[in-house]
Amino acid sequence: MSITIRKGTAKDLTQVFELVKELAEYEKALHEVENSVERMTEDAFGKKPIFEFFVAEADGKIEGTAIFYYRYSTWKGKAIFLEDLVVRKAKRGAGIGKKLLDAIVQEAKDVDARQVMWQVLDWNEPAINFYKKLGANLDEEWINCKLELKQIQEYKMG
User: Fold this and answer.
1) Residue 4, Cβ density class (10 Å: 0-12 exposed, 13-18 middle, ≥19 buried)
2) Per-residue pLDDT, 142
3) Which of 2, 27, 101, 109 ranks highest by number of CB atoms within 10 Å?
4) In what order do the strands lie in the sheet with 52-58?
5) Catalytic position from the list 26, 70, 72, 131
6) Does the annotation count 131 as an active-site position?
């Protein structure tokens, strides 16, 4: 199987969104997916793009994706946040994830980013082992925080 890694285009988003849903199903959270191909298209290619992505393609089919965006560390400077790295279940273990992560690291080098960051669920042993094998630091010190849509809407200002 010959895999080509390339930057994603708007035409790729239907297949990429299928991968997003496959990941959500793997994480037993498909019911939490509120996004859509249309929203992703606007968010990636609209007036103010907020994310980019790579795809891994074989025989015209997208077998994996790495979705990322730029963030800023006041201590380090420019950084890349890898939001999702997804490979179709049937293609896992074939080196596609490594090739996608290679593309992210190359992007970081190309734009002089000082960090590449991502999250992994504490129960996702295959992913944890993959990242450890690559030499990544798994930080147990920081706690993730977030406000969901309802909390944003109900947030008390002042």
Assistant:
1) exposed
2) 86
3) 101
4) 4-7, 52-58, 61-73, 77-87, 115-118
5) 131
6) yes
